[in-house]
Amino acid sequence: MSVRDIIIVDKTEHFADRITRMYRYLSDKHLGEKDMLKQIVRSGTSIGANVSEGQFAQTKADFLTKMTIALKEANETRYWLKRLYAFGSLSEKEFTSIITDCEDIISILTIITKTTKENLKVKGLDNK
User: Fold this and answer.
1) How far from each other are the two terminal CA atoms of the chain, in whole angstroms?
2) Residue 17 has pLDDT above 90, yes or no
3) pLDDT by residue (tens digit) across 72-88?
4) Does 128 have pLDDT greater than 50?
5) By C-alpha distance, which of 31, 29, 12 is closest to 101?
């Protein structure tokens, strides 16, 4: 496992914990946003689950699939965070803190997926 892999595993586990704590905190205060909160806890914890699965992928293509799904889930989570902020469920300080973590994860996953795609093309393993 590379240093980058260790970093993304740690970041996504930490992020899942933050999302879960945020859900607990907000679910008591903002009953009107229950559906949004359920969505964000699903997508926010799915990022790390897919990254974790990718660490034991059977092939590079399988790894790429898991990282791509994690990236899509991170993007969805960013969407829900923006919605919660727009509805006033998160303060500016809370939003800035958690969206920064989300953006960091998106950046790392973008690099991982791009690099993996390039490596698959070099080896002639891509399907395109």
Assistant:
1) 27
2) yes
3) 999 999 999 999 999 99
4) no
5) 12
Q: Is the pTM of this model over 0.85?
A: yes
Instruction: Give the number of residues written for the chain.
Output: 128
Residue-wise pLDDT for 35-52, tens only, equals 889 999 999 999 999 999
Please tell me the distance from the alpha carbon of residue 89 to that of residue 111, in angstroms, as a whole number: 31
pLDDT of residue 18 exceeding 90, the answer is yes
The rounded distance, in Å, linking the Cα atoms of 7 and 26 is 28
User: Sign (positive/negative) of CA torsion 26, 27, 33, 36?
Assistant: positive
3-state secondary structure the chain: CCHHHHHHHHHHHHHHHHHHHHHHHHHHHCHHHHHHHHHHHHHHHHHHHHHHHHCCCCCHHHHHHHHHHHHHHHHHHHHHHHHHHHCCCCCHHHHHHHHHHHHHHHHHHHHHHHHHHHHHHHCCCCCC
The number of helices, as runs of H, and strands, as runs of E, in the chain is 4, 0
Look-up of token digits 């496992």? 1
